[in-house]
Amino acid sequence: MSDNNLVLEASGLHKSFKDLHAVKGVSFHIATGETYGLLGPNGAGKTTTISMVTGLLERDGGEVVVDGREISTTSTEAKRAIGYVPQDIAIYPDLTARENLSFFGRLYGMSAKPLRGRVDEVLDIIGLSDRADDRSEEFSGGMKRRLNIGIGLLHGPRLLMLDEPTVGVDPQSRNAILESVERLSVEGMAVLYTTHYMEEAERLCDRVGIIDEGEIKAEGTRAELVSMVGQRDKVRLSATGHLDAAVEAVRAIPGVHDASTREDGIDLLVDGADRALPSILQAVAAAETSVSSVAVDEPNLEAVFLHLTGKALRD
Amino acid sequence: MKKVLAIGWVNIVRFMRERANLFFVFAFPLLLILLLGAMYGGGFDTKVGVLVEGPGGPLADRLVAAVEDLDETTVVAYDSEPSLIDAVQRGRADGGLVIPSGYDAALVEGGRAEVTFIGRPADQTAQLLQVSVSEVLAAELAPVRAARFAEVETGDSFDALLARARVVVPQSERVSVSYREAGEPIFEGIEELGAFDLGASQQLVLFMFLTSLAGSAALIQSRRLGVTRRMLSTPSSTLVIVGGEATGRFAVAIIQGVYIMVGTLLIFGVNWGSPLGAIAVLIMFSLVGAGAAMLMGALFHNDQQAGGLGVLIALGLGALGGSMVPIEIFPDNIQTVAKFTPHSWAIDAFAELVRRDGSIVDILPQLGVLAAFAAVMLLLATWRLQRVLTR
Ligand SMILES: Nc1ncnc2c1ncn2[C@@H]1O[C@H](COP(=O)(O)OP(=O)(O)O)[C@@H](O)[C@H]1O
Ligand SMILES: [Mg+2]
Known about the structure:
Chain A is an alpha/beta fold.
């Protein structure tokens, strides 16, 4: 087809549940080794989208190609390239961690011997080696989550899809999960990661699609998204001296959009704080004002989301 | 195929881990084995309570011995009429026989003696027993009459004449009643009285189908855990998934069926006909049960709902299919409808094996129909499950 560096191409996906148009023409693609995030609030259509991409949900329109093969609800062989981690934990509570992994390994078509070794590897990756032979119903929420993820990793898929894998876990488990996703990505696995946590998308994803009400509102790297919506850096100077004179002086510097005084310093809105900062500090010093600290607040995806949709990511 | 077995294996492992299930599979059928054994097993004699009033005598003793000689009949002696009547009322004896104190004297000297038979009302066993006892009595009386006639004619001793008459009379009486059939039997085959063994197969079929439908809960639980859907995200088709889950159900049903069959055969000698044929019916009917469990499991979202309805369906199909009363007593049109139940075909196959001494070849048509039932239900379940998982 097109670029054979692409692991996933989804185009024009549509899905309605009765009269609710849940996904309205979503398109995106993921390259080898790339981590792509779908960032959006609850009900945005993330799970619906990922379900169509994994061939678990009939779509009303659009096309999905994974590793060069068309995916539908009746494809089997094409699903070999996919590791899917559902949002809701899907494991047998009355089986042990090892039994759960072995069972799904068989369904991924792995034969007994390599599977045994691979199960040990995965148990190590998800940090459950010492609990391998305990029934999963005895696990904490975070451990269940990790086992849930482990099943998706077993067969070393080309494309790993994780649907909100950190919902409801303790900070430690969350960090462990994020770290293993980073490591897998370094090893060359393509990852589709959905979340409503801005920090996770910023930390993990090479590119992010911002999704709301069934549509991708904007897409790109973090920097692209931030600049796309024209968000500016906030610079806060703690300073003493002739603050009014200093404000007058910095306003003339290119890139500075606004400057105002407050009781113990100056607030500025700047395009590209890293470039403008030296000139700003010079101008302030020239106005006989001494600076004790500088804080730069770069805009984040939360701000981008707010700008695009007029609402907060989390309510 | 490996995947089918992997799913089936996990299904069985999970089933066995639930302690209640172990009771269900191994302990509960024991009850059925005992029940079937008691109802349909061989080796249970008819019990006749006998009361000899007064001092008794050699002729009274002969009568008791003759009753004891009847096939599958045991005599139990009682020493008072109330205790004999009580035994009959409570079913400890199938019938009671009272031989009056004047019995010997009446036969030797001529006179009246009234032998009384006691039975429960409308009890077929008692009625049959009474006929047998009357025949025994008639056979006892014939030489006595002959000897008395000779005594009057010749003046020889009664005892000597009676001894001779006992040798001669049975040889000379060659009149017997023969029996010819006319028309269709009311209950097919009942005169050969394998009919009782047939009852065991009816109950087995009813029980196996009931427990199979209860097994639909397994698929529903897997679905609710999200595991079934997750299986579909692996390179496994819905047919493989349904096939795997059905394999687990099939294994449980066949283990149960064989266990009950072998148990009743070994302990109570219940007749199941040709072993090969009987196992073939069990296999096919277990497949039907597994298919039905999958269909229920795909249709319902709530395992309690499915469980409750499963019991109703199993009882309903069982009744219609001849598991509760012989299908032969239904009106023709209902008998036709009954052909749409797998039960009627399984029972028919067992009837062929047990009553007509059929072999596996004779029941190929029934096996084929059962296989078709299983295949259709598995395919319907697959189609339905694909829909509920992906929409
Ligand atoms: N099976 C379904 N039936 C009806 N509505 C659904 C179904 N699944 C999802 N929806 C609706 O579609 C919208 C998108 O849901 P979802 O994709 O789960 O969002 P997200 O994963 O982003 O939280 C929501 O409004 C949700 O209520
Ligand atoms: Mg979701």
